[in-house]
Structures are given as structure tokens and as C-alpha cells.
């Protein structure tokens, strides 16, 4: 069943198109999803959720539900108040961050529509759901803080007891940091003879929408409590469960079995996980909870949701001199595990690939009565990349030059690496010229520009637009010391074990916990090359804290560049450990032992032993040199010296029907540079999927709430995850500029497509109708928005969904954010 | 009156019970008979009663297609069919697809074209693709895209799925440059 067209085993594994080991179980239906787990005596839970965005709970009557068929118990927040603790917040970005306590089950007040107010436990899932309908909750509805700008002005309080919705203000200023000049000076100078581009962009609220709904099973009946969860973070989850519930880590085992997608959406310690632990321990029986899709869309975390106010300063020739960024970021009703810090990740990427000398960033995080936001594919970097790539195209339009020319004028040239940016990051390597040249050729840039001109001149109702995004991102999270300096609550190292088994097979353990990325295959390739063993002989284990006993899990494109490098180190230790054993068995000097292609040879002779023979010898341990421990295995923990910086050039051609507002993608070309590629097949797949998600933000997806705070897009009928028919086939290629921060020379790829594609698509849509007076269309660029932009353009406004031009932020004196009150009449797209 | 679904009420009265109904069907080649609640969905029956967990549930609204199986040779979303409606029918799930240890050509093509990542949508996507190819043995790219429109995938961007379906149909495997 493994027949593939892979090449013979003599070629290096790294760089080879290996078909995935994971596939066999996934294509035959033998996958182990959490919801597949059935345990003896297992009970099922259903959640009773608030229909209101903000309300006081005046009474809960559980008697009818308790009397219902096969119901074991019904639990409210008050019932478990002593046990439940508060959900953790791992990234307080300022010492004075306002962080409301987050009980897994609401006690006396609900703060978003979908919050859990009671839990029904029954013998079957259907009975639990039936009985959940019978829980009678009375609410006293309170005014809800829903609009981000109004919330920032404290017009309505999400948590009245806190007295403010402002959670934290985080500021970076290049003049103060010593990394660059003063942005106000740059802007003042640009106003006097240069160019100033001022824009306001909305990063609409998105939903990660992993295909497998979240599911959790807890078995408290053994010596340990075992939790299976559809999570990205089994290790972090175990630590936090232990810390919050006061149980020793060694008494908790967390297993992330096959996990059906994450995209950051399973990077959480969820209320449902804590509730499952509390109830299973209380009842002494296994319990299961699997969310419905509407629960998932309503109550699993959302992403993005920012207003950005941007001021770009440039000289008359297009040389950018400074950028000022003022953000409002909607955290939702609680500060989630790392959601408070997501905008801070973006802070380092607004300067992107450009070397302008002055930068100011201020972000106000804001509490509202919506579900919390947290990491969503790219986390902070898509928001930043969108802003700068839109601005660069606007600058080009303002100056009447080609948008590629503006980028070339301002980017860091290949000769200038390593380069310390105005945000203080050191980019190790990059070659923007090479990627751009390749993309331009693949795209047929000049021909499409000529066609665009022809259509404009002919007044064609269907216009053509060309969008560009030359992006870089910061990934491979990351150096623990740097994360510490940002007050992030965890390190960025990763752990690996490489164990030679007596038969010569290799067991590899990684702390990176996969959810579709192909770790088992890519990691097998790395170890097979390093140890000179067949790819098929390597078995990769992950996602179980009992087996992978330490690790920091999978997010931020860190698995390969951090976890993969840990594997290299562990494999190298195995080789070093084997050398004296080989020398001993071959009666040679250790200095004469050479390791190559799986064999320890004696220099200058044809004598040698295969690594499998050494493995067996260390297992038998009959004849080892003095002081050498039996068994041939090793552990390594790797903490990288730096992030890494994949980059690329994405070009998109969009057709826009000016009569209907309909947009359709004509062509999409991307040339990414992620350094050395381990498995081209997996990389291409990651790029395709990433592009689809970024394009979805540009054109389709939006979490929409009505005026009462109910999520309108709470099903796949309303939340428009693109279908196959909504997308085209992308043309994907690469250039190779190895990273200098890991020996594999590789950079992360999981988030690149998402980060780069959103601005490429919107730049193309705007480009198609710019000659009609349109300078912006807020996302998603639905036919209605495009039509309105085109039809409103002649009357002086470009896009009626854009916020008004009044200042919303405090600017350099960024502590004053109350002037946002002036803008409460803005439309944010709700209900559109 | 035209019958569009099995005669559920009369069977219920035959059984003399409002709570359970007797059904007989063939699932992946094996005959099964059971008493089920009338409201039980086919996907619940497959997963919960038969332990056929290869078929999964991704949404509540029959939009995602993760639960797609074949009923009498045609793809259906098994969250959209009551178990009692399958009475007398023949159901094939992803677990019944490989014969004698040999993968179905569409399964093999999904593997070869890297047409899956997390794999959650994959069983439904494969079942839908087989039905599509039964109707149209040589679909164009656009026909494949429209043919699998009812099945959502969040990982692959669909590109390699389209390629896999075309490869299974014997078309040249898309020449697109891979990274």
C-alpha cells in the first residue's frame, strides 16, 4: 500500500518529494480523532450557552434537566466556583494590563453570546443535548460593548466592574529604542515637499474554522488523569491544567491524537477542557465533549479584528522615510492565553522588507462583549503585512509609478544582509530581488499590464487589476530570551529524542505536536539522512506527554526550524556516542573513526560497522568500552539564536466586473523563499492552503455580529470558507536563500501563504478600479462592497465602509485614546 | 402519491414502538440489522453503533461534506440522512473502500498527489470524488472544482485534491511547478 513513484533510496532524503507516512491511516479512515474515543462507562457533556452578549444571570433552574432521561448531573458556575479557577493568560504585554478573571463556567454574568452557563452530563451525547434544552436560565440583559472603536472610548463597558475596556497600551518608538529616527519629524518633513499617505484599514474578525470540531475526553479512573484533546499544545496544556487545578503534572497525561487542523485555533486552554477535568474528577468517570460546528464558530477563539490607522511618509521620489502605526485590537471579553500579545508580534513586521529610518507603533488592546481573539494563522504578521503592502501600493499610485518600482527603491538589498531593522530585528538572510524577478517572469507581468491598459482604454465593463505583495515574516518562535523580553509566558525551545532500537530501527520523539503538517514524514527525512538509515526505518512519535515528555508544541511555524534542529542535535549526539563504541569493537582509535552514510569506518581501511550493528551491541552491552552507558539514544533541546525570516513575492491578477462588483481571480503566482526545503511536496501543500486562507480574508470571510452581539455567521452557510469552485490553481515556485540561524538552513512556511496573499489580492482589486477613483475597499471585498466603492467613487468617497478620516488614536502621546468617541457612527460592516 | 423516502411511519407502526425502529442494511459488504431511534442520523449510526469512525462530522448544516458516504452507489451526506432512510440500502464508507488490501485508485491518487493534510475532510472528499468520477470519468479542472464544491477543506487550498481526482481519472497529473 505504500507504492509511490519515489526515487531510489540512495539519494538524500532532504529535498526529496516523499509521500507522507501519515496518509495511510487518513485515507483509509483509520484515524484516531478525539471524538472516536469510547471508554467504558463514559459520560457525555453538553453545554448550555448564553444567547446574550452581556447579561446578568438572575436564576438557573436545572431541575427539569436533572430529571430528564439518563441525565447524571447538571452543573452551573456556582456549583464549581471553588474548583474551576480562572483560565490562564500567558502573555500580559504590560505590567498594568487589565485582565478580567475568566471562569470556565460563567458564575453571575455572561460576557459574550456563546459563553457557557451550565453543563449537562448524561449517558449519551443526544440525551445531554436534549436535557440542555431544559435548563431554564433567566437573564437580565446588559448593554454590550460590541463596536471596537466605541469600546475603546469606554462608551459601554464589557466588564462594568473594571471601569474601562482598555486592557493594555503597548508602544514601540524607534527614536526611543535607538533603532531609528523620529517619525513625527519624518512626517512633518514629508508634508513639506514629500508625500504622506494616510489610511485606515480594518482587519475583520476571522474564524480559524479548522475542519475537526474541538473535542475532549477525560479519563480520571487510572493512576493518572488522562486527557485526549484536539489541541495544538498538549505540553503547555498539561502544565496549565496542573497549575490552575493544583494537580501535579505527573498525575496528568495529555494526548493530542490525530488533530484535524488548528491554524492557531487550537492554541488555547479552553473552558471546555477545564470543565471536562473538573467534572471527570468530581464524578470519577470518563467524560466526553465534542462541540457542534455552530458552537465552534461561536465559542472557539476568533482571529484578527483590528483597526489600523497608518501614516506613511516619503520623499518626493518615493523613498520612504517613516511609518506611524496606531492600532486598536479587539481582545473580546477575556484576555485569552496569548491573544493579548498577538498585535505585539505584528509590531515587529510593519516595516516588512523595507529599510525606512523612522517607526512608531502604538497598540491599544480593548475588551468587548465578543468571544476572545487569539492567534490565527500568521498571528499579527498578516495584519502588519497587509498594512504596509497596501500602503506601498498606494504610495506608488500617488506618485504614478509602478508598485514594483516603489518596492525596489525601498527594500533591503541582498548585499545588505544581515540587516537590523528599524523595529530592532536582525534579518539573517534574504534576496528580494531574486524572488521578485522570478515571480515577475512567471506572471507575465508586462503582458498583463498591457492588457490592463487596453481594457481601461476600451472602457471594458470587466477591468483587470494586478496586485503585489513582497513580504517577509518572523517565524520559528523562537529565542526564549527574546520571548522573555516580550513578557511571553513560555520559552521557544524544542525537544527531541533519537533512539536507536536493537533491530536498527529508529524511534524519534518530538515535542512538536502535529495537526496535519506532516511531521512524521519530514522529521523521518531529517533523521534518515543524518543517521544514514532508510526513511522507512524511522518512526516519529509525538502528541502524548507520556511519550514526548517535554516540548513546546506547534504554532508559529516553529516545528521544523526549532523542532527539526533539535532532532539534528539529538541525532548528532547519537553518532558521537556511537563512535567510541565502534572504535572499541573495531579495535581502532576513536580518532580514526569516520561516520558516513550510516557506517562507522576506520580511516584508511575497509573495516567498519553499520549503525544498526552498533545499536545491537549497545543493547546487548556485552562488550562496551569502560564508562559507556548501554543503549544508543540521546536527547537534545534546541533554543534558536534568532527567529527566521522567510520572504517572497506574490503577484495576483483579479478581474472586477464594474457593473456587478463581482471579482474573480485570473492568475496567482508566488515565489517564496524559505531557505532549504526538506520536502517539496509538503511545502507546496502548505503554500496552497495558506494562500486559500489569505485569499479568504481578502474576499470571503468575516465573523459578523448583529446589533445585539449574536454571531450571525455561526454556520458554514454564513461563514464563507472558500470551496474548490471559489479558488483557482496557483502557480507556486521558490528561490533558495538559506537561513543562517539553523544548520538545516530552512525557514518556516506554514503561515507565509496566508500572510502574503491577502494584500496581493486586495491590491489587485483596488488596482482594477483605481482609475475610477477608488483608493480603498475594506475586506472582505464582497461584490456589494466593490460595487459601492465603484459607484461611490465619483461622489468623492472611495468606500463607504471605510472608517471616517477623523483621528481615532492618541498618536505619539498615545495614552489618550478617548477621542475614538467621535467616531461611533462608523459602519463596521456588521450585517452586511 | 410519490414515495421519495422509505415508508417510515408504517414501519414504525409495524414495530409497535414509537421509540425504536428496525432496520436492515449492508455496510461495507456486511449485513447488519438493528433497532434505532427514528431520529438517529446515518452518520451517528455508523459511528456510534457500528464503530465506523472513518466517517466524521464536521458541521451541523450539511455544508462541509466530511460525512459523505455512498448509499446505493451514490454519495450522500450521512448527516443529512436518517439511519431509517438507509433501511434496505447498501452503504459504503471509507473503511470499506480498499479491497483486499488494495487502495481504491482515488485513495492512491490522494496519497500520491499530497491531496490531504490534517485528513479530516479526506474520507468525505474521497467518497465524493469517486461519485464524481462515476458520473464523469474525465472531468476538466473546473468540473472537478464544481463536483467537490459541497466538501470543504481548510488545509490544501484544494489544488492537490483537484490534481488527485484528475490523476485517478487517468489524466496527466497536473504539471504545476512544485516548490
Automatic annotation (TrEMBL), chain A:
It comes from the Bacteria. Residues 14-25, 819-832 have a biased composition (Basic and acidic residues). Residues 28-143 form the Aldehyde oxidase/xanthine dehydrogenase a/b hammerhead domain. Residues 1-26, 790-832 are annotated as: Disordered. GO terms for molecular function: anaerobic carbon-monoxide dehydrogenase activity; iron ion binding. Signal peptide: none annotated. InterPro entries: Ald_Oxase/Xan_DH_a/b, Ald_Oxase/Xan_DH_a/b_sf, Ald_Oxase/xanthine_DH-like, AldOxase/xan_DH_MoCoBD1, AldOxase/xan_DH_MoCoBD2, AldOxase/xan_DH_Mopterin-bd_sf. It is an enzyme of class 1 (oxidoreductase). Its EC number is 1.2.7.4. Keywords: Molybdenum, Oxidoreductase. Its cofactor is Mo-molybdopterin cytosine dinucleotide. PANTHER family: ALDEHYDE OXIDASE 1-RELATED (PTHR11908:SF132), XANTHINE DEHYDROGENASE (PTHR11908). This is Carbon-monoxide dehydrogenase large subunit. It comes from Nocardioides perillae.
From TrEMBL, chain B:
Residues 1-20 are annotated as: Disordered. It comes from the Bacteria. Pfam families: Fer2 (PF00111), Fer2_2 (PF01799). InterPro entries: 2Fe-2S-bd, 2Fe-2S-bd_dom_sf, 2Fe-2S_ferredoxin-like_sf, 2Fe-2S_ferredoxin-type, Beta-grasp_dom_sf, Diverse_Oxidoreductases. Its EC number is 1.2.7.4. One of its GO terms (molecular function) is 2 iron, 2 sulfur cluster binding. The keyword Metal-binding applies. Pathway: Alkaloid degradation; nicotine degradation. Residues 21-97 form the 2Fe-2S ferredoxin-type domain. Keywords: 2Fe-2S, Iron, Iron-sulfur, Metal-binding, Oxidoreductase. This is Carbon-monoxide dehydrogenase small subunit. It comes from Nocardioides perillae.
Amino acid at each position: 500500500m505504500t507504492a509511490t513513484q519515489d526515487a531510489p533510496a540512495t539519494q538524500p532524503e532532504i529535498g526529496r518529494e516523499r509521500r507522507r507516512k501519515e496518509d495511510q491511516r487518513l485515507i483509509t479512515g483509520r484515524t484516531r480523532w478525539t471524538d472516536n474515543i469510547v471508554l467504558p462507562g463514559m459520560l457525555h457533556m453538553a453545554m448550555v450557552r448564553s444567547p446574550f452578549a452581556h447579561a446578568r444571570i438572575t436564576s438557573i433552574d436545572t431541575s427539569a434537566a436533572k430529571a430528564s432521561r439518563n441525565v447524571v448531573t447538571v452543573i452551573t458556575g456556582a456549583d464549581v466556583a471553588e474548583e474551576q479557577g480562572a483560565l490562564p493568560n500567558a502573555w500580559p504585554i504590560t505590567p498594568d494590563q487589565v485582565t478580567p478573571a475568566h471562569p470556565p463556567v460563567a458564575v453571575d454574568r455572561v460576557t459574550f453570546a456563546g459563553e457557557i452557563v451550565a453543563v449537562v452530563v448524561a449517558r449519551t451525547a443526544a440525551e445531554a443535548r436534549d436535557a440542555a434544552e431544559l435548563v431554564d436560565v433567566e437573564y437580565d440583559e446588559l448593554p454590550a460593548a460590541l463596536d471596537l472603536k466605541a469600546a475603546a472610548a469606554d462608551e459601554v463597558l464589557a466588564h462594568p466592574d473594571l471601569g474601562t475596556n482598555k486592557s493594555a497600551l503597548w508602544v514601540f518608538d524607534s527614536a526611543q529604542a535607538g533603532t531609528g529616527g523620529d517619525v513625527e519629524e519624518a512626517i512633518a518633513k514629508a508634508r513639506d515637499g514629500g508625500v504622506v499617505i494616510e489610511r485606515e484599514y480594518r482587519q475583520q474578525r476571522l474564524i480559524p474554522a479548522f475542519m475537526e470540531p474541538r473535542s475532549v475526553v477525560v479519563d480520571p479512573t487510572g493512576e493518572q488523569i488522562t486527557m485526549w484533546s484536539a489541541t495544538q499544545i498538549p505540553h503547555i496544556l498539561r502544565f496549565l491544567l496542573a497549575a490552575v487545578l493544583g494537580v501535579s503534572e505527573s498525575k496528568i497525561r495529555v494526548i493530542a491524537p490525530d488533530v484535524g487542523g488548528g491554524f492557531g485555533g487550537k492554541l488555547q486552554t479552553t473552558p471546555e477542557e477545564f470543565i471536562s477535568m473538573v467534572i471527570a474528577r468530581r464524578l470519577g468517570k470518563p467524560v466526553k465533549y465534542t462541540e457542534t460546528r455552530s458552537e465552534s464558530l461561536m465559542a472557539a477563539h476568533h482571529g484578527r479584528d483590528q483597526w489600523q490607522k497608518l501614516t506613511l511618509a516619503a520623499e518626493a521620489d518615493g523613498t520612504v522615510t517613516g511609518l506611524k502605526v496606531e492600532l486598536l485590537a479587539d481582545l473580546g471579553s477575556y484576555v485569552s492565553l496569548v491573544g493579548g500579545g498577538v498585535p505585539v508580534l505584528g509590531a515587529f513586521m510593519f516595516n516588512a522588507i523595507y529599510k525606512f529610518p523612522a517607526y512608531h507603533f502604538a497598540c491599544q488592546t480593548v475588551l468587548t462583549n465578543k468571544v476572545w481573539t487569539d492567534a490565527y494563522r500568521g498571528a499579527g504578521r498578516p495584519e502588519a503585512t497587509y498594512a504596509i503592502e497596501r500602503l506601498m501600493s498606494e504610495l506608488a499610485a500617488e506618485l504614478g509609478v509602478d508598485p514594483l518600482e516603489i518596492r525596489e527603491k525601498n527594500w533591503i538589498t541582498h548585499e545588505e544582509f544581515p540587516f537590523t531593522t528599524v523595529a530592532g530585528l536582525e534579518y539573517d538572510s534574504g534576496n528580494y530581488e531574486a524572488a521578485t524577478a522570478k515571480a515577475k517572469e512567471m506572471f507575465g507581468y508586462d503582458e498583463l499590464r498591457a492588457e490592463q491598459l487596453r481594457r481601461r482604454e476600451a472602457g471594458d465593463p470587466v477591468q483587470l487589476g494586478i496586485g503585489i505583495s513582497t513580504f517577509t515574516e518572523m517565524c520559528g518562535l523562537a529565542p526564549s530570551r527574546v520571548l522573555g523580553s516580550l513578557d511571553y509566558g513560555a520559552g521557544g525551545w524544542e525537544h527531541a529524542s533519537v533512539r536507536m532500537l536493537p533491530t536498527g530501527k529508529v524511534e524519534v520523539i518530538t515535542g512538536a505536536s502535529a495537526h496535519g503538517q506532516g511531521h512524521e514524514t519530514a522529521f523521518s527525512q531529517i533523521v534518515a539522512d543524518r543517521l544514514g538509515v532508510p526513511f522507512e526505518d524511522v518512526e516519529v512519535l509525538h502528541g502524548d506527554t507520556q511519550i514526548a515528555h517535554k516540548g513546546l508544541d506547534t504554532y508559529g511555524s516553529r516545528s521544523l526550524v526549532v523542532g527539526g534542529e533539535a532532532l539534528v542535535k539529538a541525532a548528532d549526539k547519537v553518532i558521537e556516542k556511537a563512535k567510541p563504541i565502534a572504535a572499541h569493537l573495531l579495535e581502532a582509535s576513536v580518532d580514526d573513526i569516520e561516520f558516513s552514510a550510516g557506517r562507522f569506518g576506520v580511516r584508511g581501511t575497509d573495516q567498519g560497522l553499520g549503525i544498526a550493528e552498533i545499536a545491537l551491541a549497545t543493547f546487548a552491552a556485552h562488550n562496551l568500552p569502560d564508562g559507556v552507558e548501554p543503549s544508543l539514544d540521546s536527547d537534545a533541546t534546541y533554543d534558536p539564536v534568532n527567529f527566521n525570516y522567510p520572504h517572497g513575492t506574490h503577484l495576483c491578477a483579479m478581474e472586477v466586473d464594474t457593473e456587478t462588483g463581482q471579482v474573480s481571480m485570473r492568475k496567482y503566482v508566488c515565489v517564496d523563499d524559505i531557505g532549504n526545503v526538506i520536502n517539496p511536496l509538503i511545502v507546496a501543500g502548505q503554500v496552497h492552503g495558506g494562500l486559500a486562507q489569505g485569499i479568504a480574508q481578502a474576499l470571503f470571510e468575516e465573523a459578523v455580529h448583529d446589533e445585539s452581539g449574536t454571531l450571525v455567521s455561526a454556520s458554514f452557510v454564513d461563514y464563507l470558507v472558500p470551496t474548490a469552485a471559489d479558488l483557482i490553481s496557483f502557480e507556486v515556485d521558490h528561490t533558495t536563500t538559506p537561513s543562517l540561524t539553523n544548520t538545516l538552513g530552512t525557514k518556516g512556511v506554514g503561515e507565509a501563504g496566508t500572510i502574503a496573499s491577502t494584500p496581493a489580492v486586495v491590491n489587485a482589486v483596488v488596482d482594477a478600479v483605481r482609475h475610477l477613483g477608488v483608493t480603498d475597499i475594506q475586506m472582505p471585498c464582497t461584490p456589494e462592497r466593490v460595487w459601492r466603492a465603484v459607484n461611490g467613487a465619483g461622489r468623492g468617497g472611495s468606500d463607504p465602509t471605510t472608517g471616517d478620516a477623523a483621528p481615532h488614536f492618541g498618536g505619539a502621546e498615545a495614552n489618550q485614546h478617548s477621542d475614538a468617541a467621535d467616531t461611533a457612527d462608523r459602519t463596521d460592516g456588521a450585517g452586511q | 402519491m410519490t414515495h421519495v423516502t422509505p415508508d417510515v411511519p408504517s414501519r414504525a407502526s409495524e414495530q409497535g414502538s414509537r421509540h425504536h425502529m428496525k432496520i436492515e442494511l449492508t455496510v461495507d459488504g456486511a449485513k447488519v440489522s438493528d433497532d434505532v431511534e427514528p431520529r438517529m442520523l446515518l452518520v451517528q449510526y455508523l459511528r456510534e453503533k457500528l464503530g465506523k469512525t472513518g466517517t466524521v462530522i464536521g458541521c451541523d448544516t450539511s455544508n462541509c461534506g466530511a460525512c459523505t458516504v455512498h448509499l446505493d452507489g451514490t454519495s450522500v451526506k450521512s448527516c443529512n440522512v436518517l439511519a431509517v432512510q438507509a433501511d434496505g440500502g447498501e452503504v459504503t464508507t471509507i473503511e470499506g473502500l480498499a479491497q483486499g488490501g488494495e487502495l481504491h485508485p482515488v485513495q492512491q491518487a490522494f496519497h500520491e498527489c499530497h491531496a490531504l493534510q490534517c485528513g479530516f475532510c479526506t474520507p468525505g472528499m474521497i467518497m465524493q470524488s469517486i461519485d464524481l468520477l462515476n458520473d464523469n470519468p474525465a472531468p476538466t479542472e473546473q468540473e472537478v472544482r464544481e463536483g467537490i464544491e459541497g466538501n470543504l477543506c481548510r488545509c490544501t487550498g484544494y489544488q492537490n485534491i483537484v490534481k488527485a481526482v484528475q490523476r485517478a481519472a487517468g489524466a496527466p497529473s497536473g504539471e504545476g511547478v512544485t516548490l
